[in-house]
C-alpha cells in the first residue's frame, strides 16, 4: 500500500477507534446508573384504589394472532387497580371479536376492560395515533400506559413501574413519563445479530442515563411502554398534536422533555416482552417500514447517516486486511464491542461473541435503511396496515425525534 495512503487510513481508523473507546467507556460507566425495576424495593405492596390508578391503552389492527395472549397478561396484573381500554382499529380479521370476548369474560370476573371499535379513520390522522387519542378520551386512570397488542407483561410489572414513577422508593425517581425498556423475544441468529447491532449503535449515539436531566437534550419514547400521567398527557395536547406522526412513540418522548416534564427510563428484564420481528427478513421489513421516518423523510440526512455508520462501524474492518498496522484499530473496535456486548448480555441474553457479526449486521441495517428510503420515495408515501399515507403529508407533520 502506498505510504501516504497508509498513513491517512491509519490516522482515520485510529480516530474511529478512539471514538469507540471514549463512547464505550462512557456507556459502561453510566449505564449502571439507570434503575432496574427488578430491585426488590420496587415490588413493595401498596394499598389498592377503588378507582383505576392506570388505564392501559391497547390499539390493534389485524392482530388476531397475538392480541388475546397480550390482553390476558394485562388481566393478570396484580397489586394495583387498572383498567384496559382496547381499540379495534378497523380490523378486517377477528381482532375485534376476540377483544369483545375477552372483555366480556373480564367484566364477568370483576375486571375493568372495555373495547372501542373504530369504523372509519378521520382525515388527517394516522390510524394508530387516532386510536390512542380516542382511547385516552375514554380513560379514567390517573396514569395512561400506551402499549401494543403484541406486548406481554408479568403480573408485577405495573406495580413496580408505578412504585418507581410515583417516587415511593426514592424521590428522585418521580416521573411524569416513564419508559421501561422491553425485553425482546429472540429466536434466530438473524434476530440476535440485528438487535446486537442496535445496542452497539446506541453506545455511539445515545446517552440514556442523561434522560432524567432536564438540561440534557436526550429524550425517549418506546411504543411497548409509554406511561404518562393523564393530566400531563392532556396538558401537552395528547396525540391530537401528533396526528400524522409515524414515530409517535419517539415524538411523545420528545414533547414530554421539550415541555419541561420529568422523564425517566428503567430496565426490567422480562417484565415487558415483545417479538419485534420474525427472523432476519422480519428485521429488514421492520427497518424498511420505519427508518426513513427516523431521518424525517430527508434524503441527504439518510444518505449521510448511512455513510457515517458505514465508515465508523465497518471501515476499520474493511481496511484491516490491507496492512498489518491497520489490524490494531480494527482489533480495538472489536474489543470495545466485546465489552459492550458483555454488559448488555444481562438484559438481552445475546452472547458476547455476537460482536464478531457486528460488521455484517451493520451492513444489513444500512441496506434496510436505504431500502426504506427508496421504497417510500418510489411509492410516494407509507403503506401502514392497509392505509396509505402520502409522503407530502408525512413530511409536513414530521417533528424532531431527538
From TrEMBL:
GO terms for molecular function: glycosyltransferase activity. The chain crosses the membrane at residues 297-319, 326-344, 350-370. It is found in: Cell membrane. GO terms for cellular component: plasma membrane. The keyword Acetylation does not apply. Residues 55-166 form the Glycosyltransferase 2-like domain. It comes from the Bacteria. Keywords: Cell membrane, Glycosyltransferase, Membrane, Transferase, Transmembrane, Transmembrane helix. Pfam families: Glycos_transf_2. Its main location: membrane. This is Glycosyltransferase. It comes from Silvibacterium dinghuense. The lineage of its organism: Bacteria, Pseudomonadati, Acidobacteriota, Terriglobia, Terriglobales.
